[in-house]
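Protocol step 4 of 6: record predicted structures for both targets in the notebook before any analysis. Target 1:
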Amino acid sequence: MRTVHRIISFFVLFVTLYLGVTGTLIQGIDLRTLFRHASPTDPEMMAIREGHDGPEGYAVIDTGDYSAAALPDSFDLRAAVPLLVEAAHATLGDAPLGYAEVRMLDGQAVGLISSGEQLVKLDFASHRATLEKSAPRQSRPPSSLRNQVKWLHRMTPFGNWALWINPLVGVSLLVFVVTGLVLYLQLLSARRRIRRPAWFWSAGGWWRSVHRWISLVASLFILVIALSGAWLAIESLVFGYYLTAHLPKPGQPFERPSGATPLTDAQLPGMLTTTLAARKSEFPGQVLKVVRLRIYGGMPQGVVVVGRGNDTQQLVFNARTGRPVSETEPGYPETGFPFGWQAHQWAKQIHRGDMLGLTGRWMDLIGGLAITYLSISAAVMYYDMWQRRRRAGRRGLLWT
């Protein structure tokens, strides 16, 4: 166990230090952003939320929705949707309809209905309809310090070949945790036989003692980081080759397959009724800001945006059954991730700790700091042992 622990550390030590430092920096940026209550338009806050609500074509919630007012309680959605459809046909004729949406814009309730690259906007107060060009959502991640560090953390600058490194390091961290705990239990058992049962003790110098203490305290945190990190690394590896296989023409942005298909006027009333009932059942106390009706991946869907301030969130329902649906369902277009978009988001939430809220983020920060210290202390201890062996005439870098 000791030999395996030492030899693996020799080969991946500086990579674990690199990942520990960059991962800790990302978590530090996130915590600072959250504790200063950054605005929804802050680049770091936008980077934190990036991809959380699905890929382009699926996500409906926008940056402005976090500060937008709620739809008035007196607003009649069931009466508004037919007016929106009527305005769309008056403007577009018999063109197929993409989605129908009611939302708050600049303090006013407006209706939006799409048809290809055209968008009809209806002001419900004045009943005035205008035709606009449908603006695509921002596909590029926001420019922020967080994304720059994340870019380094994922080793993106080094190309697809470097994507193989992170899965290997994830497995190595798992081996470190297992072998380290086995070695600790062996030492603990030996000490208890000589009636020294304390869980923590000082022996072998300052670096070794603190290395042992931190390893024990942070082993669970490091295990979670290693498992989720290995999962994400494998998915990123597959996704990297997916992007390579679907490269657009020079100068063209990468576009994901659209899962949207046209809907009909007759579908809308039933979809709206089911969506509003599902929203009331699932989140009865939340204020409503946006309702979108669409067909995505062959499924009639009702998307709502509810909540206030930073608690604003997007919910998606099957508009036929009222069932809440996830970001990965049968019939959805492929995203490039082997287990789908939703599984990738879950893995990210586990890896950065926010699946458990701020408590999980602090645990993740402790794990990142622990990995950083353990990498440095392991290098110091390894160099010290190598120096002693070299003075004894044993110059090999590896030994059993």
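Target 2:
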Amino acid sequence: MTRHSIVIVAALLTMGTIPLAQERQVGGVGLTMFADSNFRGEVLTFRNDVPNLATVNLFKLASSLRVADGELWEVCDQPDYGGACLVISGSENDLGRRGWNDRIASARRVRGGPGGGRRGGGGDGVPGNQTGLELYAEARFYGERQVFRSAVSNLYQLGFNDRAMSLSIPQGDVWEVCVEANFRDCRSFSASVMDLTELGLARNISSVRPIRQGRGGTGGIFGGGSSGARLMLFDNQSFSGESRMIDRDTPVISGFGNRAESLQVMGGTWDICDGPNFSGRCITVTGNMQDLSPIGFSNRIQSVRLQSR
């Protein structure tokens, strides 16, 4: 190439008239994704949130990436920041080592860069547009994130079994998280928990389901009970063990009769009875009872009904 040609190419680059050269510009501010490992292949740099990478033809194609100094980004395997998510900083020359090769479908800034990013998603906070239960692989809302908007009976199928270290819940929601699959040995939560170690649940959650979803939800998986009243029965004391959620009059508690040792009232006033069809001895409960023995109802509840909302 002659000296005259070099001067022309340099001038074109400076003017930004060669699209390929602009597209491959990296560093500075934002998130840069590469189609191949070791920062090779097609490349794009993002300075703003991207809810769907299909719009830029990079949907589930990234194999390596770089994040600008001082910034923190969250990448997710579903559009609109859904599904499993990973908070990243620095460089990742092979996303396959993290199990994230060709998985990224959306990306958003968590911290740093123009405007400072959003608080949450990368530690000590929660995303402002949160729409479901979020489990994080590390304490204080760090690490890989999984979002749930409905019940999941076994987290193994999502690759998140026994991995959660913290959880975030939208205001107004109540969720049940369980140690075993199929909703066995459960606890109910209505607020976020920065470190599940304190509750003995660190890396010990295998299934989750909504009890109440406050942002226009219909009460999670429990249909028919439009009043919002809920009664939770547990087969162990102190709200532990397998649980059964009830949201309506139940003349026969199929599969759970004579098993409850504690209960939580999550709305309404309830009658609990030691006979089917609301027969036998019945008493009214309005609050939580961590041990039903003092009132003579441990392992004796056979039917329940909603007295008032």
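Step 5 preliminary note on target 2. The domain at 130-221 is CATH 2.60.20.10 (Gamma-B Crystallin; domain 1). The CA atoms of residues 3 and 104 lie 43 Å apart.
Proceed to step 6 after PI sign-off.
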